[in-house]
């Protein structure tokens, strides 16, 4: 699972920094909490775990429900961003 966490962390952080540099404040402020949460989750992995999503820890501690909740929140966030970016792209194409 670690193979998916690091690229997501790097990609989301790069997008957030690019939004800050291009002065898209609303979208930057929307992305900042998620980027911060990704960094926090990666830093706070206990030593000895396989990564952020350690399968044995999830089932041993009963964390499956919280991980599913986090996954659904991320899915909703990415769907919201997709439609926001699609709207922005169509608006930019129409205004040209």
Tell me what you see in this structure.
- The protein is mainly α and 96 residues long.
- It has four helices and no strands.
- Helix 1 (2-21) runs antiparallel to helix 2 (25-43).
Q: Helices and strands in order, then pairings?
A:
Blueprint: H1 2-21, H2 25-43, H3 55-60, H4 64-95
Task: Sum up the structure in keywords.
80% helix; 0% strand; 4 helices; mainly alpha; 96 residues
Briefly characterize the structure.
The protein has 96 residues and is an all-alpha fold.
Determine the fraction of residues in helical runs and give it as a percent range: over 70%
How far apart are the first and last residues' alpha carbons, in Å?
A: 43 Å
Oligomer: single chain
Mean pLDDT over the full residue set: 85
Q: Report strand %.
A: under 5%
Low-confidence stretches: none
Number of helices: 4
**Biggest pleated-sheet summary:** none
Shape: elongated
The string of secondary-structure elements, in order, is HHHH
Q: What structural class results from the helix and strand content?
A: mainly alpha
Computed Rg? 16 Å
């Amino acid at each position: 699972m670690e193979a998916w966490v690091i690229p997501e962390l790097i990609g989301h952080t790069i997008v957030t920094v690019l939004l800050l540099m291009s002065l898209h404040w609303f979208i930057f402020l929307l992305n900042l909490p998620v980027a911060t949460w990704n960094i926090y989750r990666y830093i706070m992995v206990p030593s000895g775990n396989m990564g952020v999503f350690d399968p044995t820890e999830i089932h041993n501690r009963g964390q499956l429900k919280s991980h599913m909740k986090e996954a659904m929140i991320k899915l909703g966030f990415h769907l919201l961003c997709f439609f926001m970016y699609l709207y922005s792209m169509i608006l930019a194409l129409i205004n040209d």
